[in-house]
Write a structure and sequence with these properties.
- The chain has one domain: 2-Layer Sandwich (Alpha-Beta Plaits).
- Helix content is about 10%, strand content about 35%.
- It contains 1 helix and 6 strands.
- Strands 1, 2, 3, 4, 5 and 6 form a 6-stranded antiparallel β-sheet that branches.
- The chain is globular, with a radius of gyration of 12 Å.
- It starts with a strand and ends with a strand.
- InterPro entries: RCK_C, RCK_C_sf.
């Protein structure tokens, strides 16, 4: 999985990670409330069709959503990205 690392925090305690959901993502069509997220991840925002969304429980994931996550500890990044997308489109 290729991801763009936006910022590493003090002492590698966490990382902001931005990913684009592909059509084969297991979370597409599900609301945030319906997905059991790893406790290491927090959804910060979702960018959809050039609009920034503040996510809430009723927000439904769609193909090509750009999801900004905060993941802590940093060692959990690969695990959380795999959970969210399985396969991730790189963001340039």
């Amino acid at each position: 999985a290729k991801i763009r690392q936006l910022q590493d925090l003090h002492q590698n305690s966490g990382q902001f990670t931005n990913l684009r959901l592909k059509e084969n993502s297991p979370v597409i069509g599900l609301s945030i409330a319906d997905v059991r997220f790893p406790s290491e991840a927090v959804i910060v925002s979702i960018k959809r069709q050039n609009k920034l969304l503040v996510p809430h429980g009723k927000t439904v994931f769609q193909k090509d959503d750009e999801v900004l996550l905060f993941i802590s500890p940093i060692q959990k990044v690969d695990e959380v990205v795999s959970f969210m997308a399985g396969e991730v489109s790189p963001l340039s």
